[in-house]
Amino acid sequence: METLLALLAVGLLGLGGVCAYQSRKLKQLAAARNRQGDEIERLRQRLHAEEFERSRARAFLSTATSVAFDAILLLDEDLKIVSLNQAAAGLTEAESAIDRRLPDVIDSDDLCDLAEHARREAESLDAQLLIGESNYRVRAKAIAVGESTQFIGIALQDITDLVHLNRARRDLVANISHELRTPITRIRLIIEGLFLDADRPKRKASIQSLKEIAMETDALLWLAQELLDLSMIESGQAILRLVKTPLKQVVDEAIDRLESQAETKNLNIVSHVPQKFAVLCDPDQLKRALGNLLHNAIKWSPSNDAVTITAAAAGEEVMVTVFDNGPGVAEDVRERIFERFYQADVSRSGDEGTGLGLAICKHIIEAHGGRIWAEGNSQGKGGQFLFTVLQADAEFEQEPASLDEDKQALKLPESAATT
């Protein structure tokens, strides 16, 4: 019996050891499983972060290529288009340019040569190319992906407006040089003639010379004013102060300002602007615009002729017309003559002027909420410029002339004046 009990005790001890061993094993397995779970969670979080980064990179690339003003293309080694953005799609001549060769969708040998050269030389190249009727600044760059794969990236920036602006500015400098040289040379010659005359200059000849100097000085002042006006307009410093103003007052002051120029050609400026019209305007700016139109009309009108200004109601606006009997404006350039620096053909411009006056008029009239345009003379030779300006809420009553004005208007015979 004792032996049996001893054996049972030994058995129980052995079983307890086995259970303890298995318990340790289970704890070790549980710990390993927890570590594996933590590692899996870390891997899952890393994959999630990497997927987020890839999505963000794809979104950034898609956004950058979609909203970019520049056209962007990606080509493979055979110059097949792999990808392109919306701006580049507008350059292609096919509905779908993907997997098509560059020469098949964009008609530009220079662009294809640039892409081929970039692929062959494996470098970045810049060039200015003409594609269709537009000018582009182009950059082509070889892009290596891995050891054997190569792509060509092309970016095209439309610089047509910049090229036109640079050309216009060059023309402006040339025109200004011409405009300055002519009156300065004439003034110099007139002054030299006065000083080198052996006899004392006669009064009549001296007065005529001084008139010519004054005329050329006016031309210089007008040029300087045009440049100043354009600078003020483009810098945003030409602020309008709209007030209720009699239109006839503005017209009369503009005529007075140009009366001396009209006299040099024996021109008569006729105003048919009723006293009743009141407009909402900046008087100084509107007078400047009207002065530019009158200056134009005087410049191209034949001598011993007339320039006519009329005004008529047009709904809530007043339409003002400046009519001259000059060569007029060709129908195909009537829109472009209001562009900065633009000059019409020689028949109208005589290869003179800066091309700024009408552009300044357009800025001023449109800032008043009106519009300006040119028309031909339906009765034959000549042309007319028209613009609109808003009527004020009420009409001005004609003011009685002052006593001084009545006296000035009354011309007495010399016999009566001397008595």
Topology diagram in text:
Layout: H1 2-67, E1 71-75, E2 81-84, H2 86-89, H3 102-105, H4 109-121, E3 125-131, E4 134-145, E5 149-158, H5 160-196, H6 203-234, E6 243-246, H7 247-257, H8 259-264, E7 268-272, E8 278-281, H9 283-300, E9 306-314, E10 317-324, H10 346-349, H11 357-367, E11 372-376, E12 383-390, H12 403-409, H13 414-418
Parallel strand pairs: 7-9
Antiparallel strand pairs: 1-2, 1-5, 3-4, 4-5, 6-8, 9-10, 10-12, 11-12
What report would you give on this structure?
The chain starts with a helix and ends with a helix. The protein is built from 13 helices and 12 strands. Helix 5 packs antiparallel against helix 6 (203-234), helix 7 crosses helix 9 (283-300) and helix 9 packs antiparallel against helix 11 (357-367). The radius of gyration is 42 Å and the shape is elongated. Strand 11 and strand 12 (383-390) form a beta hairpin. The chain has 2 domains: 66-158, PAS domain (Beta-Lactamase), CATH 3.30.450; 168-399, 2-Layer Sandwich (Heat Shock Protein 90), CATH 3.30.565.10. Strands 2-1-5-4-3 form a 5-stranded antiparallel β-sheet, with helices on both faces. It has 419 residues and is of the alpha+beta class. Helices cover 52% and strands 19% of the residues.
